[in-house]
Every structure is written in C-alpha cells, then in structure tokens.
Write a structure and sequence with these properties.
By secondary structure, this protein is α+β, with helices and mostly antiparallel strands. The protein contains nine helices and eight strands. The chain has helices at residues 78-88, 93-113, 117-122, 124-139, 160-347, 349-373, 392-402, 404-412, 416-427, and strands at 2-4, 9-15, 18-25, 28-30, 36-42, 46-56, 62-73, 144-155. The strands form three sheets. Strands 3-2-5 form a three-stranded antiparallel beta sheet, with helices on one face. Strands 6-7-8 form a three-stranded antiparallel beta sheet. A two-stranded antiparallel sheet has the order 1-4. Helix 2 (93-113) packs across helix 4 (124-139) and helix 6 packs across helix 9. The longest helix is centred in the middle third of the chain and has 188 residues, at 160-347. The model has no long low-confidence stretch (mean pLDDT 78).
C-alpha cells in the first residue's frame, strides 16, 4: 500500500526489511500492512516566544528579555532527520515546540548572565547572534535547526533602562539644536549665493533672449521672401497642372464611354444567349423528359398487368388441380374405409358387436358413476336386506353394469356372454 506526504511532513517506515527504518521527506513510500509500520513527523516551522523574566546580568541587575525564534526539523539533512525521529517521533508539534522553547530559553538566560545591561540594550545584534549560535549548536544534535532569532523586547521593573535613555536623550537634543543652528546658517549663506547666481543668470538669459529675438526676426524675413517666391511658382504650376488634369479627365471619360458601349453590346449578346439556354433548359428538355417518363411508366404498367394476369391464371390452375386431387384422394380413402368396415362386420358380426360393447363398457360405468362425483351428501335408505350404508353404493353401480349385456342382447340379438365363451375357441 502506498502512502504519500507533503513537503512539510516526513514519513518513517519500520518493520520487515526496513532496518534501519526508511525516512521519506515529502514523497511516497510502499508499506506492507501487518509487517511494516508507518509514522509521521511534522517539518513545519515553529514560532517560539522565548521569554526570560528577571534574569541577573553580569553586574547583578535583573532585566526581562523577550525573543522570537523560528525553528524547524531539517528534513533535507538525513542525519538531522534521523536524530529528530529518534527524539521526537510520536510527539505532537506542541511537545516539540515546548522542548525547543525550553532549550532556547536556557541559552538565552545564559547569554544574558554574561553581558551587561548596556551591552544588551545598545548592541542587540550581538546578543541575538550569540543566542543564535549557542542555541543552534545545541539544537542541531536534536535534529532541529534555528531559522532565525530576533530580540523583541527588553524591560525592567526599576526604570534602569529609562534612566540610561535620559542621558542619551539629552545628548541627542543638544546635537539637534546645534545641528539646527548650523543648518540655518548654512542655509542663509547658500540662499544669498543662490540669489546672486539667480540675478547673473537672469541678465545673461535676457541678453541671450534679445540676441535670439533679433536673429529670429532676420531669419523670419528671409523665410517670408522665399516663401512668397515659392508660393507664386506653386500657384502657376498649380494652374498648369489643373488644365492638364482636366484635359486628361476628358480623354479618360471619352474612353470610358467607348468601353461602356462595347460592354453593353457584349452584355446584350450574353443576355440573348442566356435566355435561349434558359428556354432550352426550362421548356424543351423538361417536356421531352416528361414524355419519355410517361412512356416508360405506361410500358412498365402494361408489362406488370400482363405478368399479374398470367400469375393469377397459373395460381388458379394449380389450386384447382390440387383441390381436385385432394377431394379424389379423400373419397377413395373413405370408400376403402367403409368397404373394410362392411367386410369386417359381415365376417365378424357378433364379435364386432361384442368388441364394441366391451370397449364402451368402462365409459358406461363412468357415466353411471359420474353423478356421484358431484355429490356432497348421500342419504341411504335400507330395505331390510343386504349391506347397509356407504358400502352399498359399489354394489348398486355393479348391478347397473351387469344389466348391460341383457340390454345389448334385447337390442341387437347378440349374447355377449355366449360370444365371450366362444371367443377363446375362435382364437384357438
């Protein structure tokens, strides 16, 4: 099974065939379930607020310092990642941040104890670099790199830092006043020089402007004379060109009229030819096509009617012959059957009657018993002799069936009993 993680996370796979464990920062890895185990560790940057309250400096004065540090587990360095996994695998970001915070706070307190208040206050960069260097060398062993460290705030409860700032404030104010006076003095000097230079520049500019105005007027007069001469020449040339252009226009107009007349004649000829072709295409050819189509349709209809009449005549002839043959065959079969039955009855008259009666005897018994199938209730009245109850019903049915041979002998004159006794002899 494949597992993936982003660039801000690392995966550690341990177990079967993973010795030492495999560490993957920002990628994917194959994990065999039940045989291997995957764990994740965060590579996000952690922001730590490092506060050291009332720490005694080298001269024994307590101050409080707050620093901001950015730390993270280094995923690109395999050794640092392995060290971080050994120490922090299975821990949350808050737990890792707490361990790093406690380490940084300890180093910050240690650096504060080696410096004076003035050194920390005036040279914050030096303090930050010392804390950064000392903490980095210690956190590297845990697999954590310090991205940055900045001193955020320094304060104390006895206004010591405020007192240090008063003297510096006075010096700054003094230097500001002196600087302001010197700046005003220099500004006045530079302003006077600027005014003098401005007047000189103004005079030179006015002189240059007068000379330039004179030169401009001279050049303008020369230009006006040249322009007038050129203008007169241009007017004459324009009039001459207008006359030539009018003459060319008249010539072109005459040529255009000739061309138009010739084109009109050609158009009339084309129109006459087009109308003749249109008449040919729209009147003559469609009429001939329609005539040919009607002739073909009449011929096809005639052939179709002829073929249909022939087919119907042939079908009627074949159907009549088949029906005649079928009637003849049926008549012959019925005649042969009747002759066979007559011959059989003539030869075996009594045996045939007996056979017919015996075949119909079960049906007679079924017909006699049929009314009893729909009977729901039977009331038996005893006559005082024989069986009593339901057992009498089969005897009644058998009594009806045994009377059948007598009825057959009365109707046909054939004794079923004698025929049945003679039948074995006949068979022998």
């Amino acid at each position: 099974m494949f597992f993936t993680c982003g660039p801000n996370e690392a995966m550690v796979v341990s177990g079967f065939c993973r010795s030492p464990p495999v560490m993957v920062a920002g990628g994917r890895v194959l994990v065999v379930p039940c045989l291997q185990q995957i764990q994740r560790i965060s590579l996000n940057t952690l922001t730590l607020n490092v506060r050291s309250e009332k720490v005694y400096t080298r001269h024994g004065f307590p101050i409080s310092v707050t620093g901001i540090a950015q730390v993270k587990i280094q995923g690109q360095n395999k050794e640092m990642l392995a060290a971080a996994c050994q120490m922090f695998l299975g821990k949350s970001e808050s737990e890792i941040a707490q361990i790093a915070l406690e380490t940084l706070e300890g180093h910050q307190r240690a650096i504060m104890a080696t410096m004076t208040v003035e050194e920390i206050y005036k040279d914050r960069q030096k303090f930050s670099e010392q804390v950064f260097n000392v903490a980095s060398s210690d956190l590297v062993n845990m697999g954590i790199s310090v991205v940055s460290y900045t001193l955020k705030d320094i304060h104390d409860d006895q206004d010591y830092l405020h007192s240090l700032g008063k003297g510096r404030t006075a010096e700054v104010q003094r230097d500001a006043r002196v600087g302001e006076a010197e700046a005003k003095r220099d500004a006045g000097i530079r302003e006077a020089r600027a005014r003098q230079e401005q007047l000189s520049a103004q005079l030179l500019s006015e002189t240059a402007m007068a000379q330039a105005q004179r030169d401009f007027q001279l050049q303008q007069a020369q230009c006006d004379a040249a322009v007038s001469a050129r203008k007169a020449q241009a007017d004459l040339a324009y009039q001459l060109q207008v006359a030539k252009t009018k003459q060319q226009i008249e010539e072109q107009r005459a040529q255009v009229q000739v061309v138009e007349r010739s084109q009109q004649a050609q158009l009339q000829e084309h129109e006459i030819g087009r109308r003749e072709r249109e008449l040919e295409a729209t009147v003559r050819k469609p009429a001939e096509a329609e005539r040919f189509r009607l002739e073909r349709l009449a011929e096809a209809e005639r052939l179709q009617l002829l073929a249909q009449a022939e087919a119907e005549a042939e079908a009627m002839r074949v159907t009549g012959a088949a029906r005649a043959a079928a009637v003849s065959a049926r008549a012959r079969a019925e005649a042969a059957q009747a002759e066979a039955k007559a011959a059989a009855f003539a030869q075996f008259r009594e045996a045939a009657v007996v056979d017919l009666v015996l075949q119909r005897l079960p049906q007679v018994a079924e017909a006699v018993a049929q009314p009893l199938l729909g009977t729901r209730r039977v009331t038996v009245v005893s006559g005082g002799s024989g069986e009593v109850g339901v057992g009498r019903l089969p005897a009644e049915i058998l009594d009806v069936v045994t009377k059948l041979p007598g009825a057959v002998e009365a109707l046909t004159g054939v004794s079923i009993t004698q025929a049945a006794q003679q039948k074995p002899d006949c068979v022998a």
